[in-house]
Amino acid sequence: MSVAELVLLGVVVLVGAFLQASIGFGLGMLAGPVMALVEPSLVPVGVMLLATGVTAATVVLEREHLDLRGAGWALLGRVPGVIAGAALVAVLPTQALSLFLAGVVLLGVFITIRGFAPRPTTGAVITAGAASGLMGTATSIGGPPMALVWQGKVGPALRGTMGAFFLVGSVMSLVALAVAGQVTAEIVTNTALLLPAAALGLLLARPLARRLDVRRIRYVVLTVSVLGSVVLIVQQFV
């Protein structure tokens, strides 16, 4: 990466980590398309490494609300999804993976805007966990299915359940990707250069999150995510 590319990705990761810690999503949807444009080798492993670090730090800060039991069914569903996602990464060419990433982002934005709200039955949670495992492992964006099925939870219950699911689930995905030969020393080294930006975003979220207009920020993230995805799609055909 050039210095300019590193600075650009650093800013995106900082903002994404800030949003992830503040409103529960943002890092994957924001950083995924940008990284695919600037440094495709960092998708999905690099984004997932950063997201795992931010999630782990958030779980430590919110440890009194951690709810592994509540996330159990979703984690059960995530196992086959992770395997399928790792297989996709291993066999799909870069162009196809980029298009899949963009499609996942656009689908997530569409569903979020439409406000679709399935009942959180055991079957729905397991299905969402499988979808999250596949999407998260293949593209680093596994939040939308879980956000849909758990949107009835609020406050500590939501943070605890989501935190437990994404921490364990991200580790599962990274292990599967490593077994598939997708985690290389170069990717880890380049991702490490972005860790300070992620840490700064996380630190800023603690004092500033309460001052955010969550609804407005949410739509800004969705808009930027759509623009990044559209640019990514266009890039694949020019």
From TrEMBL:
UniProt topology in membrane: Multi-pass membrane protein
Highest rank taxon of the organism: Bacteria
Coiled-coil portions: none
Compartments, record wording: Cell membrane
Pfam families per the UniProt record, alphabetical: TauE (PF01925)
InterPro entries with a match to the protein in the record: TM_pro_TauE-like, TSUP
A GO-annotated cellular component: plasma membrane
UniProt keyword annotations, A-Z: Cell membrane, Membrane, Transmembrane, Transmembrane helix, Transport
Chief location of this protein within or outside the cell: membrane
Transmembrane parts of this sequence: 6-30, 42-61, 73-92, 99-117, 123-150, 162-181, 187-205, 217-237
PANTHER family: MEMBRANE TRANSPORTER PROTEIN (PTHR30269:SF37), TRANSMEMBRANE PROTEIN YFCA (PTHR30269)
Family the UniProt entry places it in: Belongs to the 4-toluene sulfonate uptake permease (TSUP) (TC 2.A.102) family.
Protein's name according to its UniProt entry: Probable membrane transporter protein
Lineage of the organism: Bacteria, Bacillati, Actinomycetota, Actinomycetes, Pseudonocardiales
